[in-house]
Amino acid sequence: MVGFKVNKQALGHVTIRKIEKGQITFITLNRPEKLNAMTCEMMEELYTALGMVEEDKETRVVILSGEGKNFCAGADLAANALGVGGREWNSKLLENQRLFSRCIEKVASIPHPVIAAIHGACAGGGMSLALAADIRVAAKNMRMSAAFLNIGLSGCELGTSFYLPRLVGLSHASEILMTGATVTADRALQINLVNYVTENTDEMDIKAVSIAKRMLKASPLGLKQTKLQLRAASESTSLKATIHAEDVGQVLCLNDEETSKIVQQKCEPFIAKLRAKI
User: Fold this and answer.
1) Could you give the 3-state DSSP secondary structure of residue 60?
2) Where is the signal peptide (predicted)?
3) Domain range summary for the chain, segments of one domain joined by +
4) How far apart are CA 110 and CA 228, in angstroms?
5) For 192-251, how does the pLDDT look when each residue is reduced to its tens digit (9 = 90+)?
6) Residue 174, Cβ neighbours under 10 Å: how many?
7) CA pair distance 99, 46, nearest whole angstrom
């Protein structure tokens, strides 16, 4: 990461780096010699890191990234191999699966916005992590694929069947998940799979941080409520339920002393600016 002063903390194969007075936190998969491929141990560390950030009073935005030349090549099949057969094997397999899937759920459920900064290989579980983020910034060399299908498993795993159709539509999602095709950064931008594409990883980091800095202009509670309502709405089929949740969220913001002060400070200049345009 170029040009940023950081405070760094390591959790095995996951690192936590804080910038902007601790308000922006990088959570980085740090196993570059293995393309940041996921092991059960690494997923436990990632879940711990996400939990730490969730409880951290300074953090307001999270940037999820990968060390070295790749974001994440998916599961480390050699490290996670269990053999085949029997009830005990199935139980252990499900236990390991939950180590992975709960990280995907955690990315979605923490109150802070999560920006995925994606470069190089982004496959299988790495793709799932990126899809679970709120915003995706990709470097030009990003290559994304649902690697599950390419090794004989279902293309739908770790939330891909939930997130991908919502991002790109059913037709594009079907092509990606049913063919195991590799999606380039430019193609991902074209089908709304990523928000931005940059020329290199340095620019990717800079872009991710610039988005995070724009988010910091919002009140802490207002930003959290926005993520909460967007997530709730994307999982809801009822407009009435969605609007009710939004109403409650706004009331919570207006009743919060810190947020109320920020609203008062920003409201008058904002209205004056609007009037000037009329």
Assistant:
1) coil
2) none
3) 7-215, 220-277
4) 9
5) 999 999 999 999 999 999 999 999 999 999 999 999 999 998 887 666 776 777 677 777
6) 14
7) 10
Strands 14-19 and 61-66, by their bridges, are unpaired
Cα–Cα distance for residue pair 218/224, rounded to 1 Å: 10
Give residue-wise pLDDT tens across range 162-171.
999 999 999 9
What is the distance between the alpha carbons of residues 238 and 207, in angstroms, rounded to a whole number?
35
Q: Sheet of 121-123: strands edge to edge?
A: 121-123, 143-145, 183-184
CA torsion sign for 210, 242, 159, 86 is positive
Query: Among 18, 132, 112, which residue's Cα sits nearest to residue 72?
Result: 132
How far does Cα 142 stand from its chain's mean position? 16
Residue with tokens 């009710």: 244
Q: Which residue has the tokens 């699966």?
A: 97
Q: With contact defined as beta carbons under 8 Å apart, do 78 and 42 qualify?
A: no
CATH classification code of 7-215: 3.90.226.10
* N-to-C CA span, the chain: 44
